[in-house]
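Continuing the batch. This is chain 6 of the set; chains 1 through 5 are on the previous pages. Same settings as before, nothing changed between runs. Recording input and output for traceability.
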Amino acid sequence: MKKSFPLLFAVLIGQTLFSQQKKSTLMISLGPSFPVGNYSNTIAGKEQPGYATMGGTVTLSYAHRMGSGFSAIAMVALQKNGFNSSAFEQQLSQSAFFIITGTARYYPNWEVQSKSWLNKYGLAGLSKNILAEGTDKKLSWHFKLLAGVINSSLPSINGSSKSDTSYVVYVRGGQSATGLCFAAGTDIRYQINKLFSIVVSLDYTGSSTLSFNSVQRYITATDGGLCIPGIYQFNNSVRPPIFQQNINEVRQAINTVNLSAGMALSL
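Output for chain 6:
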């Protein structure tokens, strides 16, 4: 009797893998992620620019066929976009600092280091295969629409400005926020055999405007010049260094176009 249980389990697994009536698909794909809209904007204006650059995305999804070409989908995704440090350096060079002291100050020659945007998605929705279904069909073309939740991490920033007469350090802390999101796209699947298919997807993802609360910003600068030129330390300031701290809210919508390719397993 004990020997029959492993045999029964093996039979069930075999039926699951090789049954002709496969109704579920597990897919994994990866590829580039292209930020669009204000998420990629580098010009400060009415909306806060995101300074996001091209990155990558990894997606794991599960689809269950319901009939008439429709499938229910659940999807999780991890997306990483870079931060446009050079554009942010230009923005800092054009920004006025220490206005509260009575005189706006501008600093050149910024060098900025930052982390990347990191976005995590959990979505569910429906897809529709627009090609006629049949056991002899190897190619399927699906359109999908999903909605869910996004958690995004705002990049932290560290910058410094050095000139003949000044030394400045700029620090912005990172923060995370959660909001609603959606995805709309299409994927093409080509069946290699009864188990595996190649998948190519093109998706647009968008989110509500996320609120990154209590984002801290620190600016420290020498005052009155440098005692010894070329020594960039705050104790080399002619007068005591000046310091400013801000705690505010950063608002950002996350919008991307993602192109990915991967494999699908029929279950």
